[in-house]
Specification:
The protein is built from 14 helices and six strands. It has 285 residues and is an alpha+beta fold. It folds into two domains: 137 residues, 2-Layer Sandwich (Beta-Lactamase), CATH 3.30.450; 143 residues, no CATH class. It has a six-stranded antiparallel β-sheet with strand order 2-1-6-5-4-3. The protein is elongated.
Length: 285
């Protein structure tokens, strides 16, 4: 809906009947929608936007929006700068995606954490005519899941740092794969992402054996590169940070543990020189 609104060119007003139909559709959406013209005058707030924010249409100027509506960073303490608000950025021709804001004001004293997307509205000549934002409330379960995800990344960071320490690096002759072979690292990260996505539907289609085979094959590729535990953690951490969705679940942890085990098994049974295998692996990805 946001893409349709932002890509829609502002043309000669349609007949009132069409406007009523269009407005009625916006009024039924589960996301909040706010539209302003290029000067910062509000043109439209749908009911859901008013419900989420607590306040609605006002005559405030863009540089007053943050204080008027009670916009804060997710820490719930630090005021959010008005010039960084997604709608203000949209009026300046900038897009904003997945911005988290905490809203607290006299009409919303408990506060609400929201996810906001914004885009400029362009005229036929390509000039900015206004801006539109859509937003939705982030429920408590989503907040808890995010906290859990962030903790998991921090735990992986700590474990990875141990393997990357100067002493361990010397003992294992370890150079991080993402530094020594960044292109290959990007390729194997994509492969790992595909394995995690496959693991999400493994239960539905009884693909557990297939997942195991994929993990073993992937471990073999990592073994060819003489990748270490820190490389595996770096790969896992990179995916978690770039794919903030269903990959943050228990199945990803199982895949990580199974991959670690498979890689250890590979090293018990094989001895491969990393430098000799890099060229052939690069061709594969």
């Amino acid at each position: 809906m946001l893409a349709n609104l932002s890509n829609k060119k502002l043309q000669t007003p349609q007949p009132r009947a069409d406007f009523v139909i269009y407005e009625s559709v916006l009024n039924t959406l589960s996301d909040g929608i706010v539209i302003a013209d290029k000067s910062g005058i509000f043109l439209y707030w749908n009911p859901k936007a008013i419900e989420i924010i607590g306040l609605g249409h006002s005559n405030t100027k863009p540089d007053e929006w943050s204080s008027h509506y009670g916009c804060f960073y997710p820490d719930k303490i630090t005021p959010y700068p008005s010039n960084e608000l997604p709608l203000v950025k949209a009026l300046n021709g900038e897009e904003a995606q997945d911005i988290e804001l905490f809203i607290r004001n006299p009409k919303n004293e408990d506060g609400t954490l929201i996810n906001v997307n914004g885009k400029p509205i362009l005229g036929n000549d390509g000039d900015i005519k206004g801006g539109v934002v859509t937003f939705k409330e982030i429920c408590l379960s989503e907040q808890n899941e995010k906290i859990k995800q962030e903790k998991e990344i921090k735990d992986i960071d700590k474990l990875s740092d141990i393997y990357k320490s100067e002493i361990m690096s010397t003992l294992l002759d370890f150079i991080p794969l993402n530094k020594s072979e960044p292109k290959i690292f990007t390729g194997i990260t994509s492969k790992y992402t595909a394995i995690l996505e496959l693991s999400l539907v493994a239960n539905d289609y009884n693909w557990h054996d297939l997942i195991t085979d994929e993990i073993r094959s992937f471990a073999k590729q990592l073994g060819h590169l003489k990748a270490g535990p820190a490389d595996v953690l770096d790969i896992h951490k990179t995916v978690l940070r770039t794919r903030k969705d269903k990959l943050f679940n228990e199945s990803s942890k199982r895949v990580l543990l199974e991959l670690m085990s498979s890689l250890a098994s590979y090293y018990r049974n094989n001895s491969v020189n990393r430098r000799e295998m890099v060229t052939s692996f690069r061709a594969d990805i």
